[in-house]
Design a protein that fits this description.
This protein is an all-beta fold and 262 residues long. It is 2% helix and 68% strand. A hairpin with a 6-residue loop joins strand 10 and strand 11. The longest helix is centred in the middle third of the chain and has 4 residues.
């Protein structure tokens, strides 16, 4: 598990949302950028940095969303395994031990306030999970299942086609995966200052029922003022059939300070 502390800047206009009785805003835009990390020296010597960019633009019955980011970590190694970094080991350059870069671009065509059809294209690289490059494309349907002023539940179903290219040493070195996708997204506002959200995605390989992927992101956001909030989030990636030689589970915990500019 990786724990990151980050600072976020947000710029957005007000979006009317999908609650009953509300009108959809003609134009709505938002942009959120985060950057953060951790560093330690002394008995242990390592650093990790992360950043992300999330944007949304909606006009009429159309919406485009961008989700991109990355993470990198390096450390000095205890090469002889004695539990202590010697002067000779400290003199060596840091060795990379974490790197993940991702990006998704999505378009929704709304069929009313609660329904939309979407297409998505994206990619990520994570050599420490065995992926030199993984690209994917999606088609699907999204619906707001329940919506009030304090709670919202969204469901999605679709098809995902992925092209996986693995790191050197894996044989076969690539694969194409056709999977069914299901998603549930939930958010609840305890009051004007505290909000909880959870999003879970499940991918089932249509040709191999054992090949199951689960992605989950949970977040708690506490508003500190009109312009600032504190956010604690946890993301989980579970792959029941991981790349050969790699583990099934990856987790990341993040603490973010979010500032709204507009």
């Amino acid at each position: 598990m990786v724990l990151l502390c980050s600072f976020a800047l947000a710029e957005e206009t007000v979006f009317a949302g999908t609650q009953d009785g509300e009108e959809v805003a003609e134009v709505a835009m938002s942009l959120v950028a985060e950057v953060g990390g951790a560093v330690t020296t002394g008995n242990v010597d390592f650093f990790v940095v992360s950043g992300s960019l999330d944007g949304e633009h909606r006009w009429g019955n159309h919406r485009v969303m961008l989700d991109a980011g990355g993470l990198q970590g390096k450390s000095r190694l205890d090469a002889d395994g004695d539990g202590v970094l010697s002067d000779a080991e400290r003199a060596q350059p840091r060795v990379e031990n974490a790197r993940r870069v991702f990006g998704d671009l999505r378009y929704d065509r709304f069929l009313g306030k609660k329904n939309s059809l979407y297409v998505l294209g994206g990619a990520f690289t994570d050599i420490y999970a065995g992926y030199d490059l993984r690209t994917h494309e999606q088609l699907g349907y999204s619906r707001v299942l329940y919506s009030t002023k304090t709670m919202e539940l969204v469901g999605e179903v679709g098809i995902d086609f992925a092209q996986e290219n693995y790191v050197d040493g894996i044989d076969p070195n690539r694969a194409n995966i056709l999977a069914g996708r299901g998603m549930l997204g939930f958010s609840y506002s305890f009051n004007e200052s505290v909000k909880f959200s959870d999003r879970i995605e499940v991918y089932e390989n249509l040709l191999d029922r054992q090949d199951l992927r689960v992605l989950n992101t949970t977040a708690l956001t506490v508003r500190l003022s009109d312009a600032m909030a504190l956010k604690l989030s946890h993301s989980l990636i579970f792959d029941n059939v991981p790349v050969e030689g790699f583990r099934k589970l990856d987790q990341t915990a993040t603490v973010s300070l979010v500032t709204t500019l507009l």
